[in-house]
C-alpha cells in the first residue's frame, strides 16, 4: 500500500499530463525510482510513468536492464506497452490502484504479464487504493472537460 501511495504522490506532479505515477521497488522493498506521466511534457508517446520509472531503476539496479525480483507500483493498470516493458525487464510483481477496462493489459482487457507463452510472468495485485487512484483521474478529466470551449 505504501508503494501505491508513493505512486500517487508522483502522479500529482504530472501537470498537463494524465496523472499517473509509478514507483519501482527493489526486492527488499527499497524505492529505486519513481516517475510520472510525461507524454505531453516530453512530446514522447512512450513517456508513460511505468516506462520512465523502469528506465530510471534499471540505471541503478541489476545488470543494466533486468529488474529481477523488483516490484512496480502504479496508480493505473498498465497498458500493453507498459505491461510488455515490465515483462521484458523481468519485474516480479506489479501492484496497481485503479483498473483500466479500456486499455488495461494486466487483467482487464488483456493479461500480458501472465501469458504462459512468454518466458517471464509477473504476479499481479490490483485495486490497491483504487478509489484514491481513480479520483485523481476523474478530477483530471473533469477539469479537461470543463476547459473545453464551444
List keywords for this structure.
150 residues, alpha/beta, Cytidine Deaminase, domain 2, 5-stranded mixed sheet, 5 helices, 5 strands, globular
How would you characterize this protein structure?
- With 150 residues, the protein is of the alpha/beta class.
- The protein has a single domain (2-146), classed as Cytidine Deaminase, domain 2, CATH 3.40.140.10.
- The protein has helices at 2-11, 39-42, 49-60, 80-88, 130-146; strands at 21-25, 31-36, 71-76, 93-98, 123-125.
- A five-stranded mixed beta sheet has the order 2-1-3-4-5.
- A hairpin with a 5-residue loop joins strand 1 (21-25) and strand 2 (31-36).
- It starts with a helix and ends with a helix.
CATH topology: Cytidine Deaminase, domain 2
Number of helices in the DSSP assignment: 5
Describe the main β-sheet briefly.
5 strands, mixed
Q: CATH superfamily assignment?
A: Cytidine Deaminase, domain 2
Low-confidence stretches: none
Helical residues, percent: 25-40%
How large a portion of the residues is in β-strands, by DSSP E?
Answer: 15-25%
Order of helices and strands: HEEHHEHEEH
Structural class: alpha/beta
In total, the number of domains comes to 1
Broad CATH class: Alpha Beta
Mean pLDDT: 95
Radius of gyration: 15 Å
Number of strands: 5
CATH architecture type: 3-Layer(aba) Sandwich
Overall, the morphology is globular
| Major sheet: arrangement of strands | 2-1-3-4-5
Q: Measure the end-to-end span.
A: 42 Å
Give the helices and strands, then pairings:
Elements lengths: L1 H10 L9 E5 L5 E6 L2 H4 L6 H12 L10 E6 L3 H9 L4 E6 L24 E3 L4 H17 L4
Parallel strand pairs: 3-4, 4-5
Antiparallel strand pairs: 1-2, 1-3
